[in-house]
Amino acid sequence: MDIKFHMEKVRLKLKEVLTIADGEDTSLIILVDEKDERQISIICENDIAARIQYRQRHAKEARKLIPEALSAVIRMKGGAPLEILIIGIYGGQYQTVLNARDLTDFVPIRDTEAVLLSVAAGIPIYIEANLMTMQSVSYKKGEQGIPLPTNTLSLDMLRKALEHAVESENYELASHLRDEIRKRDNNENKP
After folding, report:
1. CA dihedral of 154, 141, 84, 108, whole degrees rounded to 10
2. pTM above 0.85, yes or no
3. DSSP letters of 68-123?
4. Which of 129, 139, 155, 162 shows a CA-CA span of 20 to 30 A to 79?
5. Which is nearest to 9 in space by CA: 136, 128, 132?
């Protein structure tokens, strides 16, 4: 995988995991910078959210789970320190890699699984600085409604949001969502 080895990056930390709507299999992971000023959001399945929340509530019991146990063995054997890097976005998902800090080899990993691994194994998670600038929004604790960049939503979620925007007569939002859907459809149809 071709990635700039010494990229500018921003360290992130897990702030919270939220359920988006009852009855949906969707939750939201909120990651913030170290100063709690900017945030990015990652859509995840409820099972990933539940596994993250379990580790937050039951850290002692979680040490016996596979990711925690394997990371402990790697540390005991003197393995290279690991880091997780969010390096781009494509098709509504952050492109994320696992990296041994002293090596140039990168292993692709799903963004949601990367957050879970970060929580489980204590691996720091970073985002490329320019990507953070483009994708992040201000973080305000307790704020109602969480802004999401449309390019972090799946095509299916965009279509549902478009349907809801039209039903609620929010035509400005509907137009924005329609444009994002068209852009994605055009990108998928290119050879």
Report:
1. 0
2. no
3. HHHHHHHHHTTPPPEEEEEEEEETTEEEEEEEETTSS-EEEE-HHHHHHHHHHHT-
4. 129
5. 128
- Whole-number pLDDT of residue 147: 60
Supply the pLDDT for residue 88.
94
Q: In what order do the strands lie in the sheet with 106-109?
A: 106-109, 93-100, 82-90, 125-128, 9-19, 27-33, 38-44, 137-138
Q: Of 8, 12, 14, 80, whose CA–CA distance to 53 is shortest?
A: 14
End-to-end CA distance of the chain: 22
Q: What are phi and psi of 149, to 5 degrees?
A: -65, 135
User: For 134-181, what is each residue's pLDDT tens digit?
Assistant: 988 888 776 655 566 666 677 787 787 788 778 878 787 778 778 878
Q: What is the 3-state secondary structure (H, E, C) of 142-172?
A: CCCCCCCCHHHCCHHHHHHHHHHHHHCCCHH
Q: What's the rounded Cα separation, in Å, for the pair 19 and 101?
A: 33
Rounded to whole angstroms, how far apart are CA atoms 80 and 145?
40
